[in-house]
Amino acid sequence: MRFISRDAPPRVVHQLQGAGIHPLLAQLLAARGVRDPAEVEPELAAMLPPAALKGAEQAARALADAIARGERLCIVADYDCDGATACAVGLRGLALMGARVGYVVPNRFTTGYGLSPAVADLVATQPGGRPDWIVTVDNGIASVDGVARAHELGMRVLVTDHHLPGERLPDAEVIVNPNQPGCTFPSKNLPGVGVMFYVLLALRAELRARGAFSAATQPRLDNLLDLVALGTVADVVKLDANNRLLVAQGLKRMREGRMQPGVRALFAAAGREPGQASSFDLGFALGPRINAAGRLADMTVGIECLITDDAARAMQLAQTLDAINRERRGIEGEMREQAQAALAQIQLQGSGEAASISLFSPGWHEGVVGIVAGRLKELHHRPSFVFAPGSDGCLRGSGRSIPGFHLRDALDLVSKREPGLLLRFGGHAAACGCTIPADGFDRFAAAFEAVARDGLSPALLARKLEVDGELAPQWFDAEVAQLLQAQVWGQGFAAPVFASRVEVLHQGQLGERHMKARVRLLDVPAGAGATRELVAWNRSDFLPAQARVAWRLDTNTWQGRTQVRMVLEAVEEAD
């Protein structure tokens, strides 16, 4: 591990400070490419306009016509948090504008991902009869056969998605996707829930133009921004300026107590306080509870939690999601231990270090392979794929990648080099899924390793961590920690990590899996807060007597007393 210091251009720091931004925050934001002070507390008026998103206005006209004719719509969702929140946004928003709308969510274990022919058949046989329109959310851009089947059954299709398209687009009536050919929308990182929100904005404008609403009577779509923020953070899309705006606005509403009953219930189930909501809460507390339903059970539970207006029912559903998530953590822990043992055995038998990781076990759970792949990627800094048996006899794999290695492009190369191996695949740069034949794992592992070796240089394979340098002693306090926690951090806009040379005065175990130490900062003058507490989560091995550590600023409140502390992120290797 090597630490790389971020560069904050002094001129930009000065400009941000001149706009009234806290000196430390100005430095951190400048180092992350922020140049405009308006990005710090963005207003909704600064959102990219819906008209810039290809297909949004066409979708608005089609939906407005369908509403006018009393036609029935059915949302086909996805079984992750982005898909669940996109479905909830679509259901709530379309209903506000007079639509007759229901939903179907594919099952990971039976119908598979997205609008497949089987899902089109399922939609057509819903209670109440065949709908007139299918509206996909967070899926559909690869559903060539599914859209064709929907047409055979007499249904029209509106695709809203954000995943990268394949060589052939589905023959849908309308496609809204910032990554489709010919779309010049500046934010290519808009998640599925964001795409659906933009379609609703365009629809509201269309209905307003038709005289259905005035500016005073139109539905308040900003009330859906708590769901947009949750899906955006949970899907780990890059937090560009537009996505940060959406998340910031959603968090603002949560802190003010304005949120769906299901979101409030999820905060309670996770033991979090919505009045202090942060992007960390969305990504590591609420998001995993929604995702757990799609991984182990049925995402209907998650969607129902987000769409109910009954607070008691929302709490009951949130508690169910919490229980499913606890089960998921247990399964994940066992799989992670087995994966580490299998990887150690492979490394023991192999010659030289591999550029990728591919693992399979017949006893693993297909709903958890993505999480385990992510853990392996974090631990070993290698593109990682983990496979488990699917209910159809094939193997289902989920992959996670490191910066500089585009995972979907890598799978595209594998499919070209090994025809017939990838039965289905899709995703984006950082995360992908695929299905291979039951006997295809060894072929996949070899082909994926070859692509990784071709595409990854030694520099990309070296573990690096970007840090923000030493934190000045005057900023080591609870007020600054709370200021930083209130900002929107996430993928592509990393939370602050500081670096310090420390001497370890004493250290010991904290519970069964953690560590706590008292350290002295070697580059801070004595008496200026140079002795501090450092905690290390999920670390059992002790620190060396002296080390350069990367850490986050954190607070811990116990019995009414708030303590500021360092939370260990990494230890730099000695030269």
TrEMBL record:
Recorded superkingdom: Bacteria
Domain DHHA1 per the UniProt entry, residue ranges: 361-452
Keyword Hydrolase: yes
UniProt keyword terms in alphabetical order: Exonuclease, Hydrolase, Nuclease
UniProt xrefs under Pfam families: DHH, DHHA1, RecJ_OB
GO biological-process terms attached to the record: DNA recombination; DNA repair
Limits of the RecJ OB domain: 467-569
Annotated DDH domain residues: 73-232
GO molecular function: 5'-3' exonuclease activity; nucleic acid binding
Gene3D superfamilies according to UniProt: 3.10.310.30, 3.90.1640.30
PANTHER family referenced in this protein's UniProt entry, alphabetically: SINGLE-STRANDED-DNA-SPECIFIC EXONUCLEASE RECJ
Family indicated by similarity: Belongs to the RecJ family.
Name of the protein in its database record: Single-stranded-DNA-specific exonuclease RecJ
Gene (UniProt): recJ
